[in-house]
Amino acid sequence: MEQLNKKKHFNMPHTFVIIGIILLICVILCFIIPSGEFDRVIDENGRSVVVAGTYHEAEGTKPTLLSVFMAIFNGMGDASDIIFFIFFSYGLVYVTLETGALDAGIGTLLRIMKNKTSLLVPFFMLLFGVLGSTIGLYEETYGLLPVFMGLFIALGYDPLVGAAVVWIGTVSGFAAGTTNPFSVGIAQGIAGIPMYSGLGYRIVLFVVFMIATITYVVIYARRVKQNPRLSPVYDVDFSHLSTKESSELEQMKFTGRQKLVLIAFLCVIGIVVLGTLKYKWYLAEIGAVFIIGMIVVGLIGGFTLSNIMEKFVKSVGIMAGGALVVGVSRSILLVMQDAMIIDSIVYYLSNLLEGANTYIAAVGMVFVQNIIDFFIPSSSAQAATTMPIMVPLGELLGLSPQISVLALQLGAGFSDLFWPTAVATSCGVMRVPLNKWYKFVGKLFIIHLTLQAVAMIVAVAINYA
Fold first, then answer.
1. Which of 58, 92, 147, 162 could serve as 152's disulfide partner, Cβ 3.0–4.6 Å?
2. Measuring CA to CA, which residue among 138, 117, 118, 119 is closest to residue 129?
3. Region at 302 (left for phi over 0; alpha for psi -120 to 50; beta for the rest)
4. Is there a contact between 169 and 124 (Cβ–Cβ < 8 Å)?
5. Measured between alpha carbons, how far is 121 from 327 in angstroms, rounded to an integer?
6. pTM
7. What is the pLDDT of residues 415-456, one digit of tens each?
8. Which of 118, 120, 100, 117 is nearest to 251 (CA)?
9. R_g of the chain, CA atoms, integer Å
């Protein structure tokens, strides 16, 4: 009987095996789906956008055994900006951890909050959600993931709670965007409707989605705090994030030097936020600030330059596995790009909506956008590709351009928590295996899909425009 039970037990495969299976499926699709593309033009804002009605067949390069494995190699180079960003962001965090400042700061927080630490989950999730919804905060949070994961481990939760506070909070706010310039702003600009019009309904949706998401994470947090074995990552080593129990942290003295270190660390985060908002910084600029911050924090903490570099090299070793996931997952997109099937998929999926009534068309549109997000894991790129097609198609089906924009922002946003082409980066930063992440987020993704469908039905019912 014991042998039979062992045979029935199913173990999810390794992250690279999951990516490999998805890559194989995409390779097969390259031989099934015809190669094709839309014509594109540069609009007045400098964006490359699709010209509706221009889809035509093209000559793509079908994958071979050698080219598939070359795509894995080339994926590392193509994703090099994100890979090195991961190294430098965690380098800052690791050096700060080594000074003891974060542990001492967390200990002080524990003493102040006492029995109210559970309030930190909804507070920070709402904070990150608001930033994602309004200013489009997204990649800038990568550097904060290890910090919050360590914080919530110290508070007695598992690291997924800390990851959810930052990443799920941010992505949920980004998807349920109110004034998000990278989804709502771009999509409305392409659709030719007033910028940030229809704000009232989007605010309502933001509240609904955030309540549902925060409730899901809070319930999960309570369960794993009561029984840590219920955590999907119970058997995963996260010792690089925390080495002390909460009782030990509460006894730690917060020295003057450690306070200066923590102030410097927070200043680095503040500079990154300011640079992103005012100067439109992206990965290279933010990464440079993280390098400077790592050196400054290390020197304030009493380390020599040689000590800092030794710790940086050690931090790279810790994050290497996660960073490789980012590069390997990029191969999926490269194979499809070479075969030129991404535009074909957009074209055929949009054709599925023809002839549907308004309610079915609206729900179908948001599901189509969810599927397309697998192939185009960028809200701005997805808007530039699909909006010129979906807006006129929606109008033919009796849907306002505002509803087409809503389908884009919801579909291109929430699925970033699920599709490996999008979530591989955040899982790499978190060092959370994909199979463990899916076990954690699977039910939430279904909740989000259901709410998206309801949101689209209500939008049609109220004639959202």
1. 162
2. 138
3. left
4. yes
5. 31
6. 0.82
7. 999 998 888 888 888 889 888 999 999 999 999 999 999 999
8. 100
9. 23
